[in-house]
C-alpha cells in the first residue's frame, strides 16, 4: 500500500526535531503521530515535556510546540505492507522537502532520529540535498525506536536514552 506522512508538528521556535521514518497503520488510520497504544513515544514525551498520552492529541501537539519540539517523518511517501520499517520498499521512498523546513526553523539545533530506519533514510535521501551551512548548525543523534516492534529495550531504558540524547534541549 502507498503510505503518506503527515504535515510536521512545528513552529519557528523549535529547537529539537524528532524524525520518524513513516507513520504506521494505526497512526495513518487515526490521522495522528504515534497512535499505536504500545508505542512509547507519547509516554516519553510526557516524561520529558509534559505531553503524555493522558492528554488529548491536540493538547500534546501544543505542549510539544511550546516546549520547542517539532515532530515529522523523513519520508513523505513510500510503499509498505503493514507498519514495520523493514517492510518499506526502499525504491519507493520519497523524502519530505527538508531544505525549506530547516530554513523556516532558525532556532533548530538538534535532530533526533526515532530509530535506525529514520536515520538511514535521512542520510540516504535528505543529507545529499542539504547545504553545508544547514548541516553545520545542526547536531544529529539516533535514539532507540519507540515502536512496540523494537522490544530489545524496556520502556525505562528507552526513556533514559532519550533523556540523555535530548539533554541539551530539555528545559
TrEMBL record:
Recorded hits in Gene3D superfamilies, A to Z, give: Uracil-DNA glycosylase-like domain (3.40.470.10)
Q: Which domain of life is it from?
A: Bacteria
Coiled-coil positions are none
Q: Where does the Uracil-DNA glycosylase-like domain start and stop, copy by copy?
A: 7-166
Q: Which NCBIfam families match?
A: hypoxanDNAglyco
Which protein, by its recorded name, is this?
Uracil DNA glycosylase superfamily protein
Question: Organism, per UniProt?
Answer: Botrimarina colliarenosi
